[in-house]
Amino acid sequence: MALDIQPLDRFRDLLARARHLEATEAALMSLATVGADGWPAVREIYLQAVDDTGLVFFTHDCSRKARQLAENPRAAACFYWPALGQQVQVEGVTEPVDDATADDAWAGRSRESQLAAWASRQSRPLDSDEALTARVADYRKRFDFQRQIPRPAHWCGYRLVPERIEFWSSGWRYLHVRERYERDAHAWVIQRLEP
Ligand SMILES: Cc1cc2nc3c(=O)[nH]c(=O)nc-3n(C[C@H](O)[C@H](O)[C@H](O)COP(=O)(O)O)c2cc1C
After folding, report:
1. Closest ligand 1 atom, CA of 60?
2. Is the pLDDT of residue 24 over 90?
3. Cα–Cα distance for residue pair 82/79, rounded to 1 Å
């Protein structure tokens, strides 16, 4: 059955309701990636935005996830909002966001998080806490007289463009409601699934 309802609109709606009820962590998602070796990895990450084509998030380009996405752009994200009794699973293909989108998101971050992003070589072995703190101090000094800290090239964003979105709603007597949207050539196709 093809529907007019866009699953991203439905997702946005749920996210707004979750934000209303749970505030800060509503945008937290588990993001799963798989590199060329086929080894999966999952971690929590903040959803930055939902636009008309997908879910946007930011990270460091030397992180494990970025390396995996370079090898295999497919990824999956999962949200669970206990207060709503809702889970959303998103599977799709990631693409890098453009510089303007990344610059906007960067500008919205606190100065401390910007300094940490400059100093961190995310996911690389840590030599010592002192070395990391010293790097933050160096960047603090370097940008001391700059009102806006520029975005480092390694701070990058991705858009997860969904191929499949499943909405799970907690149901009475464990008869949960599952609705899977799958993209075909022309429309989203919806299928109810057994719980
Ligand atoms: C609540 C929370 C929010 C996080 N948000 C982000 C984020 O937006 N971007 C990011 O790169 N890492 C974020 N992290 C850190 C990731 O979970 C992970 O440790 C880091 O990105 C390195 O992952 P990787 O080595 O698998 O690439 C967050 C962690 C937590 C617990």
Report:
1. 11
2. no
3. 10
